[in-house]
Every structure is written in C-alpha cells, then in structure tokens.
Amino acid sequence: MNDQTQVRIQPDYMRMGIKVHVLRKPGDGTYRVRDFGAPMVKTYRIDDTVGMELDAQPMWLDEDEARALYEALADHFGHSGNDTRALRRDYDAERSRVDRLITFAIGPK
Predict the structure, then answer these.
(1) Rounded to 5 degrees, what are φ and ψ at 8?
(2) Which residue among 2, 45, 71, 86 is least crowded, i.e. fewest CB within 10 A of its CB?
(3) What is the mean pLDDT of the chain?
(4) d(CA 73, CA 76)
(5) pTM (2 d.p.)
(6) Strand partners, 23
(7) How far apart are alpha carbons 30 and 25 in whole angstroms?
(8) Contacts of 35 (CB under 8 A, 6+ apart)
C-alpha cells in the first residue's frame, strides 16, 4: 500500500475535548479525509489543506473518551510502555524486593 495515513488532532476548548481528522495521502496529489458525519471520504488537493479548516466532520471525543481510546489502542498494539497499570505492577514488585533486602540486611526484629 502506497498510502500515507496521518491523524490530525486539534484541541476543542469550547467542548473540553479534541477533534480528530484521519487523512490519507495516496500519492496522486490529494488528501482523502474520513468524514465521521457520513459514510464517505472527501478528497482535497494537497495544497488546499494547508492552513485551512477541513470541512469533513471530525471524530469528536471528550478528554475522558480520548484517554480511554489512547489506552485501548496502546493495549491493542502492545505498547506497554504507556500502560500505567504495568508500571504500577513493576513498582510494587520492586518495592517488595527492596523490602526483603532491607529485612535481610538489618535482620528480623
């Protein structure tokens, strides 16, 4: 596939969320933009998208939904570096290890 896919995220301060546009650049001098308000893809000349608002309906998410989507995508694609639950498990295991080391070093009470 020769398409280059891009995602543009814009803050939406009025609604306390974000707007998400999904664009594909197929290599023919156009962008194809996913319209989340209709089952269609709108096509723009590449030069037309520079510095202007796209009129395709974006996907709109509030902050909590956006964070939940981020975590679900990270889980799906296996990016555990972004998983705070995995970090918590690692910290707890390390603390347990350090506690055992301290107990061994100073002896039981």
Answers:
(1) -110, 130
(2) 2
(3) 79
(4) 5
(5) 0.56
(6) 6, 33
(7) 6
(8) 41, 42, 56, 57
The reported pLDDT for the residue numbered 1 is 47
**Residue 58 to residue 36: CA distance in whole angstroms:** 6
Got the DSSP string for 64-107? HHHHHHHHHHHHHHT-GGG-HHHHHHHHHHHHHHHHHHHHHHH-
Enumerate the domain spans of the chain. Answer: 4-62
> In the predicted model, is pLDDT for residue 6 greater than 70?
yes
Neighbours of 60 (CB within 10 A): 15
Q: Which two tokens stand for residue 102?
A: 């301290």
Q: How far apart are CA 22 and CA 7, in angstroms?
A: 5
With beta carbons less than 8 A apart as the criterion, state whether 31 and 25 touch: yes
Q: For residue 73, is pLDDT > 90? A: no
